[in-house]
Design brief:
Shape: globular
CATH topology: Rossmann fold
Order of helices and strands: EEEHEHEHEHEEEEHEHH
Number of helices: 7
Number of domains: 1
Structural class: alpha/beta
Low-confidence stretches: none
Radius of gyration: 21 Å
CATH architecture: 3-Layer(aba) Sandwich
Number of strands: 11
Helix content: 25-40%
CATH class: Alpha Beta
Strand content: 15-25%
Amino acid sequence: MTLRILVFVKWVPNTTVVNVDPVTGTLIREGVPSIMNPHDLNAVELALELKEANGGTVTAMAMSPPAAKSGLEFLIGMGVDNGILVTDRAFAAADTFATSYVLAKAAEKLFPIDLLVFGQETIDSSTSHIGAQVSSWLNLPYIYYVTEAKMLEGTRSLRVERSLEAQTNVFDLPMPCTIVVMMKGNTPRPVRMANKLRAKLENPIEIWTNESLKLDATHTGLKGSPTVVSRSIPTPSVPRKKQKIDGRENPAEAARWLIENLSKEGVL
């Protein structure tokens, strides 16, 4: 059987220093260069592997500012078939609740879909909420921390492996369903020039605003976000203490060296 796969991605600030608006408690994105969320690339890679094994299409969807179109073009370069950019001022400054609502409503416009795929988390917030919340809006089964997935022959079920702490679990999910791919669980493929050219020549990216989704503005963006940031307190930078690094390769010797030095510092 062929698969209709929808993978969700996010355009995020490419920085380890995130400034927060002291009034709204939301991220200040103006003037900060952005990239496609690195952990979402693991989700894209798994989606493409499933497409290659079973046939079908992979669509990437991002709810982001207009500049995210270049990020979707990057994913086209990896092999994604088409992209959808959900963008509107009415969706800005949303928390995960309002974001997942918009994404779920956008996904409904593409149904029937066999599989929804998410990255584990984003580098600008690290909430890990969106996969579960979108699945809850759509009433779909979902599994987090997925490292592998394959179709069960002759069925409409997906067998997935989940890495959890020191163990691996195996689940069979009836489709449609959602999987959330473990960050760094695979190696995303590079962009191919032929695919990148297709992104420019064919323009396989659609722009969806609230004019097409027709969502109640009181349920989206900052107005539709029940999360309230009462106060933001900047954390002062603390200078690193003098570091000691040991180059021993033998684990037992390295452990003894560590214990000796911690004892000297009064930690033990």
